[in-house]
Amino acid sequence: MSETELVRLKPRRIRVVCWSAAVALVVVFGLVATSLSGPTGDGYGSFQRGDQIAMVGLGIFGALGFLLFTRPRVEADARGVRVRNIISSYELPWEVVRGVRFDRGAPWASLDLHDDDLLPMIALQAADKELAVDGVRALRRLHEAHQARLAERALGR
User: Fold this and answer.
1) Tens-digit pLDDT profile for residues 49-85
2) Where are the domains of the chain?
3) Low molecular weight protein antigen 6 PH domain: which residues (predicted)?
């Protein structure tokens, strides 16, 4: 394993699902917006151009909400690991990581930290099967290489 190896991971299946759902949502809200015209039924109100624009806007905001789920990423190198989940981001040196976990039945992998916290890595999802397993293995190799460097330094002193 080279000292400069960079591992970049992002989920595959959820990205396809979210992009498809986002496009479908915009299309459906666009179709609904074009069908909004005239009186509301009892004649007390009527749909205006602003109502149509609002429906398209709701579709776009809903699509952006779906696309938040495409945000997760994990990057790691010899220095540490950077985890970006749906809302939060973390940059951790390998010194604070005890191990990389992907428990059976878990929806995604996680980092086991020395302070007994678990940091979920939503980018490594069980739905991606072999892609996620390969990603976890790559992270474990980087973590083990870091542990080996620490051991060499300890013996060299």
Assistant:
1) 888 899 999 999 999 999 999 999 999 999 999 999 9
2) 10-69, 73-156
3) 71-141
pLDDT in tens, 108-146: 999 999 999 999 999 999 999 999 999 999 999 999 999
For 36, how many CA atoms within 13 A lie in the half-sphere containing its CB? 18
Phi and psi for 105 in degrees, rounded to 5? Answer: 85, -5
For helices 13-35 and 49-67, what crossing angle results, to 10°?
170
| Mean pLDDT (the chain, rounded) | 90
Instruction: For residue 63, count other CB atoms closer than 10 A to its CB.
Output: 19
Q: How far apart are CA 70 and CA 26, in angstroms?
A: 17
DSSP code, position 103: -
Say how far apart CA 92 and CA 79 lie, in whole Å: 9
- What is the secondary structure of 34-93 as a DSSP string? HH--EE-SSSS-EE-HHHHHHHHHHHHHHHHHHHGGG--EEEE-SSEEEEE-SS-EEEEE
Strand, coil or helix: 140: helix
> What 3-state DSSP class applies to 104?
coil
Residue in the block written with tokens 């930290």? 113
